[in-house]
């Protein structure tokens, strides 16, 4: 247990960086320097950062495939890891030294590329090293760390928001500390040993019907995850402006941090209280909870403490059920199905699609002098609606598969 807790610290720090950069730092930058165009520019910044996130995942995946044929030496893996971590540190620091939006977006994209390049390598490496009987334990630690990161990130930024140099220093020190255990195992262990897990199981030629049913179920599950990533990653970066411009919250940066922290706290409680396998069974409740939260936000439109608590509870419940349930589904699948890599790719593409849609909506609304936030919330609600549909389709497909197997 202790080994998992220490090695998986990289998931904590990945979430800290995402929560800081996507949900607060970027919004604060454009609110300070480009207040009239902040909605559109934030959407474009997040779009390009996600695009380069996908490039980072693709580049690291290509590197890992190459390693299966010709293993990197320990020295080359060490130098690569140090170089990437230094690139993350330098680009992160540079984000606080610029005032031009184009330069900011370029640096943000570079930062996203390197962070997700190393993250994908370590994620595939860790997932491949977990015995089947420890899958659920690993998923719980992984998702709990991610949730904790979403709390720590906003609070860390809020605490040091007036002391940027201190904030940068603490963030970089934590980067080295949290990535060290996973990087040490990665450098010392052969990737060929990890990848043998993928070679042990090959689809048998006599079970094509069952394999087809499984593939269909996987496709629907990934489409459900795709729509959830589209919606949640469109909603979360909008929280700060939702607080300021729609709910008229004073000191919106601090209260947005508290709101996000409260949302994640509820998610952690859900993860701890409900087994991951059961969360996948009730996955339809995840998009439904978000839809209810958006309906209450648009109808009540209150910034009182009870109202904000209600929004946070609904979003936190939905987020916890989705992340823990979906990650358990892909992590517990057979290695031959390759769902972990597909899930990471779907997460990035879904986020990219969500940012693209919200960027287009922001641009159209501004051009037509229409309030952006209500239109964006309605669009996000439709995304969650599609996730509801796919959650029911996946159940239907699973029942059909069970019927076929029984026959």
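-> sequence recovered:
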């Amino acid at each position: 247990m202790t080994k998992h807790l220490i090695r998986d610290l990289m998931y904590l720090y990945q979430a800290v960086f995402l929560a800081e950069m996507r949900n607060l730092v970027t919004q604060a930058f454009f609110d300070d320097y480009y207040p009239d165009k902040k909605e559109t520019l934030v959407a474009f910044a997040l779009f390009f950062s996600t695009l380069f996130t996908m490039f980072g995942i693709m580049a690291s995946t290509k590197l890992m495939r190459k390693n299966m044929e010709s293993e990197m030496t320990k020295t080359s893996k060490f130098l690569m890891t140090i170089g990437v971590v230094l690139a993350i540190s330098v680009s992160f620091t540079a984000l606080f030294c610029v005032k031009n939006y184009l330069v900011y977006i370029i640096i943000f994209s570079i930062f996203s590329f390197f962070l997700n390049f190393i993250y994908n390598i370590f994620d595939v490496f860790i997932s491949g090293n977990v015995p089947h009987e420890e899958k659920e334990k690993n998923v719980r630690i992984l998702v709990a760390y991610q949730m904790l990161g979403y709390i720590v990130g906003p609070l860390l930024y809020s605490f040091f928001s007036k002391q940027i140099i201190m904030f940068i220093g603490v963030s970089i020190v934590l980067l080295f500390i949290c990535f060290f255990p996973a990087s040490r195992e990665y450098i010392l262990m052969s990737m060929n040993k990890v990848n043998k897990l993928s070679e042990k199981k090959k689809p048998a030629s006599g079970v094509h019907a069952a394999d087809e049913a499984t593939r269909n179920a996987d496709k629907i599950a990934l489409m459900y995850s795709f729509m959830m990533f589209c919606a949640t990653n469109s909603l979360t970066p909008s929280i700060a402006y939702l607080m300021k411009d729609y709910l008229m919250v004073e000191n919106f940066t601090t209260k947005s941090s508290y709101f996000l922290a409260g949302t994640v706290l509820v998610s952690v409680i859900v993860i701890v209280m409900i087994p991951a396998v059961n969360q996948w069974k009730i996955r339809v409740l995840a998009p439904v909870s978000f839809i209810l939260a958006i309906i209450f936000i648009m109808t009540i439109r209150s910034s009182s403490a009870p109202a904000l608590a209600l929004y946070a509870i609904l979003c936190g419940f939905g987020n916890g059920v989705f992340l823990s349930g979906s990650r358990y589904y892909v992590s517990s699948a057979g290695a031959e199905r390759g769902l972990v890599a597909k899930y990471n790719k779907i997460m990035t593409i879904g986020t990219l699609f969500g940012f693209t849609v919200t960027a287009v909506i922001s641009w159209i609304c501004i051009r037509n002098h229409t309030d952006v936030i209500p239109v964006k919330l309605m669009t996000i609600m439709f995304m969650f609606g599609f996730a509801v549909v796919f959650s029911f389709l996946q159940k239907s497909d699973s029942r059909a598969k069970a019927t076929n197997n029984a026959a």
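The chain has a mean pLDDT of 81.
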